[in-house]
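Inputs:
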Amino acid sequence: MSKQAFRANSGGRIDRDRPLTFTFNGKRLGGYTGDTLSSALIANGISIVGRSFKYHRPRGIMSAGAEETNAFVQLLGSNEEPNVLATTLPLYEGLEAHSVNAWPSVHFDLGGMNNFLHRLFPAGFYYKTFMWPRDRWDWYSRFIRRVAGWGAVPKKSARNRYEHRFHHCDVMVIGAGPAGLSAALAAGRSGARVLLVDNQPEAGGYLLGDSAEINSRPALSWISEVVAEIDALPDVVRLKETSAIGYYDQNFITALERRPDKSWVKERLWKIRARQVILATGAIERPITFADNDRPGVMLASSASHYCLRYGARPGRDAVLFTNNNGSYQHAIDLKDNGVNIVAVIDLRSEPDASLIAAATAKGIDVLLASQISKVIGVRRVSAVEICASNGAGDCRRIACDLLLMSGGWNPTIHLHSQSGARPAYDADLVTFIPGMSVQNEVSAGACRGQFALSTCLSDGLTAGYNAAKACGFDTEPKSGPICAAEPNISPMPMWEVPLPKKSSRAFLDFNNDVTSKDIRLAEREGYRSIELVKRYTTAGMGIDQGKTGNVNIIGLMAQITSTTPGAIGTTTYRPAYSPVSFGAMAGADSSDLIIPWRRTPITDWFIDNGGHLDETGALFRRPLFIAKSGETANDAINREALAVRNGVGIYDGTPLGKISIKGADAVTFLDRVYTNSWGKLPIGRCKFGYMLHEDGRLLDDGVTFRLSEDHYLMSTGSGVASVVQKHLERLLHCDWPDLDVYLTPVSDQWAVICVCGPLARDVMQAAATSIDVSSDAFKFLDTKNCQIANINARVSRVTYTGELSFEIVVATRHGRELWDALLAAGKDFDITPVGSDTSMLLRTEKAFIAAGLEGDGYANIYDVGMGWVVPKKKGDFVGKRSTTRDLNKGGPRPEVIGLLPEDGSFVPPKGTPLIDAERNMIGMVTIGFHSPNLKRSIALAQLSDGRSRLGETVTLFTKEKTALAKVCEPVFIDPDGLKMRD
Amino acid sequence: MAGYNVSIKALANCGFLDLRGGNDARQACNEYLDIVLPTCANKLVKTANGRIAFCISSNHWLLQVADGNQMDVLQSLERSSADISHSFVDVSDLYARIQLSGPESRDVLAQGVSIDIHPRVFPPGSTARTGIAKTTTQIHYVNESPTYDILVFSSFRQYMLDWLAMAAAKS
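Outputs:
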């Protein structure tokens, strides 16, 4: 393990008593607890951390925070994860990572050839190159995908736990720097429920790596005291390592917490509703656009200082600062005080703040005014810079250095403000965008609204916290804020591109996507003026870092090229997420078996234990399609079950059927209006089939409704549409017929429903000790009676979905399994056969019992499906009547349901098979097809244009594999007079 | 291995009656039950003998009674509301009851409940009809232990138990 050659002997917030070892690109290195991966790499003198996306240029660490644009790594081991930011990843023992975008190694990368061929890859080369021949895109894309950069998706699925958490608060403060801490303290002291989130492992923001003083003491002392007070407040929640990533309507904010309080939770995605939001997200230092500004060793000035002061890691030994503002001088001085030799300050301006020049000079730092960097020497690491006068006068001079600090001004972190729907505004004095008018209950405080001085940040935060709490009803006069030394304004000079020394020189704006100033100029020449289009054409700002450091420079350069102002250009749209989010965090913990809230009936366990092949059959129920015996195929089982129902007895779990209690004096009027038929004469103890239509006359649902008492009915609905029907009926009652005295209660889960069906069904009922006479004379088709079966209170009805003699037994859900077992026992001597829903579907097909979701396709009306008999001629108005009548009056061919008998009786036409005429025009469609074991041949139901007039004709079925002929027939294949079910 | 410090258990069946009706029916229920049924959703009221009436909407209540009592109570309510527009339906098997208790109950619940369950807003005795994870529930914050009783439609009972177990687990 190599020595940490760039680590200071003392200082920083690392724990030198707790050393750590880690591996980067196969090399074992050392660090300390409290380091990030990037600070440890810097301490070890690692200058190249990756290769760039397009040109594969060597890249080093540029920043110290979430804005990092180069240092994305592939984290290995049990926590494997692609594209992890080294700058925000706390170092841990055994950490293993390697660089991305490099093969075979980051030091010798074959992709680096792209850099020499860069003239071939200007902005938009994709769109220009791969447009011809047009149909070759798929071919090109194979290669493009292969060379596409960044990390690799782990091959193993994540075993980590990712949690979701909902949270509500009065005041949410985002950012725990000086403004955020002040705001949280002010709001928390008032008694408001406060949530303070910060993306760092410890609170303090930039002050953690700064020499500033508060109340004449180191700022870190103030932070400790404030954090202690905040943590002691009972209704303040402070989350560390938590990035607010999305800001949505009604102050809904998502935040991603890494390494939360529970050791077994890797990440927690917070979904937060805040009454008031305070954004204290700080500001991001801007690079300067000059030739080769992406070389390893070129770093943001504040970040270099941060590494040095917070981690005791020196990013270089001899440094040059290139700046356009006052704010960076202190960083140079801090670095100098901490062992980095600042060789010179190169200031683009001719008149910076005099006190700063004096302070720098006093430290022995040479300050060159009105100067600029024209050239960076060194490919794998900066070794020198060439400096010229901004006006071109005089000779250029070369200064040896291994670290080039740049400071092009500051970008307030306005991402969340913009995501909230607000538009940022351009501030010409600050040469950057600041928050505009808030459109939600949100306010920005401190540096993120362009208030860069520490004293202003602190007072801004206090005011924002007080006001936010007050808006929530917590009005406590704030204590006075702390006192800090005065700071000069940062006074940046606009400089969007330092003139390039050669035609071949490149200055990078978006380091992440390898977008240069030339790309922007090219886009403008090719006609792209809107910044949104420039972004898409050049991919500027579309990388993992979402242009945190580059976007304002791009806008500024575009303004310069088009001779307008950055404000006139405007920003692109800021979208979530602010920082990368893992798929695991998005999915949450209930991502496997619990991803669908499967419903169960009391019989589900029996099916699981007895060969039931469960599948989703609507309304989130998993029902058995069939119940296979050992060695049976699906077809075997379905055929056996279907034969049993037609010739013996079957038993079916009908619990998922929808059930709605309808009660009230106007129940009959209500039923008359929602069904096509009339309900006035239905006696108590009888039931009736009804068809329900949408307003447009299309089929909604069919089912049987039972009259239980004078004003109480129970409606059965299809399993899959129970909630749809319930909403439909409630809407009608609430919106259209509020005068009706009717109340609905959905009771689907109240009752278990078991159907015993087949010629021997009556025998089973008797064997099961049914307390009523179930003979055909005493208990007729469509009767419904209360009774006891196997000593269980039940209601039994003579209704059928198979066309056989059937008894539908309804018991309280808690008795469902008990009844099922009792009926199986009672039916044992009759070889009672449990039946699945595929078999049930076959049986209804044999009887042409219409399924609204199959034969009714959203176009067919009730006459088309052969159910016109459910519409009495003298019936008054009902929902859908007008549209149905219109269809009749309009005339013309309709898609009518008919039966099909394929000439080849072994050919089962799949659902959806087109029916075609001699001219190959589509004239219909198969709605369902089966092999009928009862008929020993295939059958199908189909919609056929004018089908009823084509009975006896032959039509052609067109499938992918073959065409087949089928005879058009009446749709009811078995017992057309319905004698069996009425037995 | 233990995860969150909570206990999850399925409770025994209870009697439940779905009560719907206007002011007259409400008045009749009030007199029989000797309570004042709230007319604001997500409120509950308890009777002296331990029955609980959850208000679902201004004309809709869910009455929880001891199991076995539901038919007696239903018949009594029917008698008291004769000639008054109403709908009283036995829904005792429509709901399953699950109890979540223990110091970290709120941490578990907040993984799937989007409403504010902070005690300042949702103190003991509160109720709400709201979603937990992907299903509809009636949550009743029973006491400060804290203990939450969760009513869930009975076909979702196992899903809810599985989900709570997952949310509480260390895995």
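Remarks. DSSP finds 25 helices and 49 strands in chain A. Chain A has a mean pLDDT of 95.
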